[in-house]
Amino acid sequence: MSAKIRLEISKSNLISIHDKDFDDFEKNIINHVYCINCASSYNSTITNYRVFLNDYDDVILEGFCKKCNHPVNRYVETGEVAKNRKRTRKLKRF
């Protein structure tokens, strides 16, 4: 089964999904991205990223490696956390 819905959301929406945990999200997700071009083991930072929600209520970040500007993506299983899933579904209603 594939995720068919890709709803683009803003960074402020992303912050509202993670609420008090956004600092941890930023520290552990945004600042730890794998770049195939740099071959750095999750030591890159994603910049100029766009944020999407899929139909599993997971977050997909699409942006660029801070070190080399190569395209990078990060998939975060946000929908598995009940409080985050509730917040993402609230966003999807609009």
Give me the secondary-structure topology:
Blueprint: E1 6-9, H1 11-18, H2 22-30, E2 33-35, E3 40-44, E4 46-54, E5 59-65, E6 71-76, H3 82-92
Antiparallel strand pairs: 1-4, 2-3, 4-5, 5-6
Helix pairs in contact: 1-3
Structural descriptors:
single chain; 94 residues; alpha+beta; four-stranded antiparallel sheet; 6 strands; 36% strand
Number of strands: 6
Radius of gyration over alpha carbons? 13 Å
Helical amount among residues, as a percent range? 25-40%
Principal-axes geometry comes out as globular
Strand order across the biggest sheet? 1-4-5-6
Overall pLDDT level: 87
Question: Approximately what portion of the residues adopt beta-strand conformation?
Answer: 35-45%
Helical region count?
3
Number of domains: 1
What sequence of helices (H) and strands (E) makes up the elements? EHHEEEEEH
Largest sheet data: 4 strands, antiparallel
Structural class: alpha+beta
Report, as a whole number of angstroms, the end-to-end distance.
25 Å
Describe this structure in words.
The protein is an alpha+beta fold and 94 residues long. The chain has one domain (6-92). Helices cover 30% and strands 36% of the residues. It has three helices and six strands; from the N terminus they run E-H-H-E-E-E-E-E-H. The strands form two sheets. A four-stranded antiparallel β-sheet has the order 1-4-5-6. It has a two-stranded antiparallel ribbon with strand order 2-3. A hairpin with a 4-residue loop joins strand 2 (33-35) and strand 3 (40-44). The chain is globular. It starts with 5 loop residues before the first strand and ends with a helix. The mean pLDDT is 87.
